Amino acid sequence: MSVRPGRAGTLRLTPTSAPDPAEGAVLVDTLWLGICGTDREIAAGALGRPPTGEDDLVLGHEVVGRIAEAPESSELTAGQLVTVIVRRPVGTPCRNCAAGNWDLCMDGHFTEHGIFGRHGFGRRQFRIEPDAVVPVPADLGMCGVLVEPASVVAKAWQHIDHLTRRVPAATGAVLVTGAGPIGLLAALLSTQRGHETYLLDRTGGEHRQHLAAAVGAHLVVGSVDDLDISPAVVVEATGSGSIVRSVVHAAAPNAVVCLLGVCASSAEASWDVGLMNNVLVHSNKLLFGSVSASRTHYDLAIRALQNAPPEWLDRMITRRLPVRHAMAAFDKEPEDIKTVIDFTGHGPSAAPETAGAS
């Protein structure tokens, strides 16, 4: 499953050869592949970069695979379910990359599987270096495709936990904007911390209502102006410039606002920087962005998913498509949360079919 980055309409299924042993000592059979907004943007020609010297990029970074072979010197074994850390350092590592914190690269010398300069996992088999492999508990199964997006959220919450300690008496609700996969996972990790959590979505729907309620969050349909709370923590997961402006104003004094979305339009994202400066300074608010994740965050993500209600995990996956219908995964449907491409050959025989729907 490959695309020519920068050119819309080039997404296609193509035959692939056996993976090059130079790519890594661990051989993995792909089982399930989650599709996210980043994949759709790359397919639309808006993002992505192929490996150096190549024209095409194999898509896919939210993977669950089964190890086919692994070196005896590693702690990995054949038959083990795994996922893979998306970001990888290139060349001489910076201080953070040398310490294993690839998500905090200081010099921009990195690649990202299926996104930026390195092939992804939308193929029957792939090879990978042992240090990038993360074991996935067997009980997560196909829901292991949520580990990668949950790792991004786990990193954000790790930083939020640290930053909120700057105000010892800080209390108040958590607001998560956007009820897609990232927003729902952010709500899960919020309620797991015991916070009163509000999940704001423009369209809502019965399925999202059920998912929010299942983890103890309150789904609010509408805009930030419809809320009657002043949140102490905001996790912004829509990438909408207008919503970013609104939540910064709506947040309580001393609040922490974390941005996980990326604005698609610079015009929409424009704002009065002087006014924003005054709002942040006069109310002691803290605004920060977060992207990618390290192994620590993958481990935290797995722990959070294992502590989630099993039915909730199942219902996060709203479509499951066999490989031959993989192109349909890039056409987002209104009730979509997470769409999964099934490489096992045991998925739905006719597509598109809905899994986990309400």
Automatic annotation (TrEMBL):
Coiled-coil ranges (or none): none
Keyword Calcium appears in the UniProt entry: no
Q: Where in this chain does the record put each Alcohol dehydrogenase-like N-terminal domain?
A: 23-137
Q: Name the cofactor(s).
A: Zn(2+)
Keywords of the record, alphabetical order, are:
Metal-binding, Oxidoreductase, Zinc
Q: Please state every residue range assigned to the domain named Glucose dehydrogenase C-terminal.
A: 143-343
GO molecular function terms attached to this record: metal ion binding; oxidoreductase activity
Q: Which InterPro entries match?
A: ADH-like_N, Glu_dehyd_C, GroES-like_sf, NAD(P)-bd_dom_sf
Keyword check for Metal-binding: yes
Q: Which domain of life is it from?
A: Bacteria
Q: What is this protein called?
A: Threonine dehydrogenase-like Zn-dependent dehydrogenase
- What organism does this protein naturally occur in? Nonomuraea polychroma
The organism's taxonomic lineage, starting at the top: Bacteria, Bacillati, Actinomycetota, Actinomycetes, Streptosporangiales
